[in-house]
Amino acid sequence: MHHRQSSKGFSRRTLLAATTAGIAAAGLSTAPAQAAGATGTTGTADKGHKADKALKKIISGMSLEEKVGQLFVMRVYGHSATAPDQADIDANLKEIGVRTAAEMIAKYKLGGIIYFAWAHNVRDPHQIADLSNGIQEIGRRQPSRIPLLVSTDQEHGIVARVGKPATLFPGAMALGAGGSRSDAREAGRLAGAELRALGINQDYAPDADVNINPANPVIGVRSFGADPAAVARMAAAQVEGYQSARIASTAKHFPGHGDTATDSHTGLPVITHTREQWEKLDAPPFKAVIAAGIDSIMTAHLVVPALDPAEDPATLSHPILTGILREKLGYDGVVITDSLGMEGVRTKYGDDRVPVLALKAGVDQLLNPPSLDVSWNGVLKAVQSGELTEERLDASILRILRLKSKLGLFKDPYVSHRGVDHTVGTRAHLAAADRIAERTTTLLVNKDRLLPLNRRTHKNVLVLGANPASPSLSDGPPTTVLGAALTELGFAATVLATGTAPSQAVIAQAVAAAAGKDAVLIGTYNVTAGSAQQALVNAVAATGVPVITLSMRNPYDVAQLPVARAHLAAYSWIDVELRAAVRVLAGRAEPRGRLPVPVQKADDPAQVLYPIGHGLRY
């Protein structure tokens, strides 16, 4: 591996030698994530004890300000740790009061950074690697010389911060439809290897929520499904995959975000499950990932009165985080909040109090507060006043340092361009993503055996539909991707993007374009009763041309589209899933997916139209 030098000629080898001197003999770089003594052999337990002793020595030498900073994981604008673009400097000054990541780390002694595409952290693989190295270099120049956890939300499917040329895999519900633990594990392993090569060492995935509410606005296809046992199996497998690549996997959102119609980004959801229902529906995936050795668990900003009669958000609830997660479930890994900028955690308390209450509840890492200065000083003052003790902070810092040690960050937190080139977006990884995606596409309707389409009888295909694409996650708008995929397979495809809310004029244009076509493929996106998307499908179907619908997010669309001759579920608008769906549509792959959630009837939600496990074959 080629080692980088800083722009000032600073040798990271010199810094690493200084940092690791005196602690390598204690086995610090290979310390286990769990508490010492939790292992099955005396030798490993002894190593854990020695590692904890070395970590505690580091903690004892930290100032109070360093201890407070170690608890925070914060956003920052810019592609570089030291030389971001002027617009990003301006954004940092406005929101954080610093110019760069380097200034922020130095001022607040941060323990972690989170990457976002909108913060311009993830332009391309080499840039991401350089940013990660720059962050680690700044961190290791601080008095405590502690490496940082660099994190992001890379769930895959509809939530992915790092786009192409990195490999993009099917999301959780698609994997749930495939039903293969091996595929979930492999996707996690390969995705984790790519993140690790970029210097990202903590991934906020997988989503362990059980999505039993079709109206859920924030989870949906981010969940593996509605069957708690199946979600538990798939989540545990993906954790094993990520962590085999030396990525800290983060299961979310404890105690379960799958049964809500409120988005915790904008409001405070209330889960009305009884304690018994929670044990049966929400708990199994979290028990499974804990058994699989999960490195970190993210909290949910929602209220569960049956678990906490005081009705505090779970992020701030001692009965939930300490009483249930720590004590009942026996979890001693890192607990991280969901973003503290979300309204779900800000509705009852001020931004200076939320971090303090989260720590008192049992949290270790405080993620992305709206004002770092307000939150950081709130924790500092709570310790100075005696509301929080330094011992309480030390307990969380020990868990965080154990994780950093397990990941090998004390030994070498840096990455190289060579490692990026050998790992990120390789042909082998892309081929694996294609194979996995083909096993997820679900055929829900196939009247008169319309599918697979025959190029002789259905050569001319009109492609209509929504374009909810993120540029970094796709080769173009979904309708364009679908058209290109059909063309590659020998069909003559005409594309007309109609959007998620087509006007009457657009619908009339689509009807006119359908004339003379052999089939129409319509990509749908969260169709509701009486919506313009439903009107579009009905109008085109009335022409008599066979209509095939493809749900590009929630599979529940099918209940609103009874006029479609065939319906496929892709669970995402990302290229890898859309192209797999087209291969299935064209008979180049068999439809193997099975519904991981039930679909209720449109006119009678109490009745199930398609049950869990439904999926047609050719």
Automatic annotation (TrEMBL):
UniProt entry tagged with the keyword Signal: yes
UniProt domain Glycoside hydrolase family 3 C-terminal: residue ranges: 442-618
Protein name in the entry: beta-N-acetylhexosaminidase
EC number: 3.2.1.52
Residues of the signal peptide: 1-35
Coiled-coil intervals, chain numbering: none
Top-level enzyme category: hydrolase
Domain Glycoside hydrolase family 3 N-terminal, residue spans: 64-403
SUPFAM superfamilies the UniProt entry points to: (Trans)glycosidases, Beta-D-glucan exohydrolase, C-terminal domain
Source domain of life: Bacteria
Pfam families: Glyco_hydro_3 (PF00933), Glyco_hydro_3_C (PF01915)
Recorded catalytic activity of this chain's protein: Hydrolysis of terminal non-reducing N-acetyl-D-hexosamine residues in N-acetyl-beta-D-hexosaminides
Family, as annotated: Belongs to the glycosyl hydrolase 3 family.
Keywords: Glycosidase, Hydrolase, Signal
UniProt-listed InterPro entries: GH, Glyco_hydro_3_AS, Glyco_hydro_3_C, Glyco_hydro_3_C_sf, Glyco_hydro_3_N, Glyco_hydro_3_N_sf, NagZ_Beta-hexosaminidase, TAT_signal
Hydrolase as UniProt keyword: yes
UniProt GO MF annotations: hydrolase activity
